[in-house]
Amino acid sequence: MFRLNKTQKITGNVFVVKALISNFFIYSDRNTNICFDAGFMPFIINRELKKININPESISSIFLTHPDFRHIGGIKLFKNARIYLSRDISSKKSEKLISYLDRCKNTGYRKLKDGEVTNIGRVKIKSFVIPNHDPGSMSYIVNDRVLFI
């Protein structure tokens, strides 16, 4: 059975954030804060981020694992974040997700292909398409050391 973690630092650079019905993760490297998914319900996320002294405005990027609302519902809280997602998301879900992203008014989005490497400051993120309940789901390896699924 899945159990939500409490919001806390779990390793030197990784934080888990409890967002009511799902967890998401933040990788922090000096002045770079990157989310892996964005949780659900912005007012709860904002409260949880205060516990770990992270300001939503400091999040520069959000890498989505898949387009389930439990994982994307908090995107609008992170106004300064660029969104990264799989280019292999089904067309029906992709249309809905892109429409939602446009309404959130973040700094834009970029579709990633399997094996693509993205550099955010000093952080290297490699994207992998993985089998999941949503076609086009992605996992990410950060600096060849930390895996987010």
Please supply descriptive tags for the structure shown above.
alpha/beta, 3 helices, seven-stranded mixed sheet, globular, 149 residues, four-stranded antiparallel sheet, Metallo-beta-lactamase, Chain A, RibonucZ/Hydroxyglut_hydro
Describe the overall structure:
The structure is a single chain. This protein has three helices and eleven strands, in the order ββββαβαβαβββββ. It is α/β, with parallel strands linked by helices and 149 residues long. The protein has one domain: Metallo-beta-lactamase, Chain A. Strands 1-2-3-4-5-6-7 form a seven-stranded mixed beta sheet, with helices on one face. Strand 10 and strand 11 form a beta hairpin. The model has no long low-confidence stretch (mean pLDDT 88). It comes from Clostridium tyrobutyricum DIVETGP. It holds the Pfam family Lactamase_B.
Extract low-pLDDT stretches. none
Number of strands: 11
How is the biggest beta sheet arranged? 7 strands, mixed
Task: Please compute the radius of gyration using only Cα atoms.
Answer: 14 Å
CATH architecture verdict: 4-Layer Sandwich
User: Which CATH top level class fits?
Assistant: Alpha Beta
Percent strand equals 25-35%
Instruction: Give the integer mean of the pLDDT values.
Output: 88
Distance between the termini: 17 Å
Helix content: 10-25%
Q: Write out the CATH superfamily name.
A: Ribonuclease Z/Hydroxyacylglutathione hydrolase-like
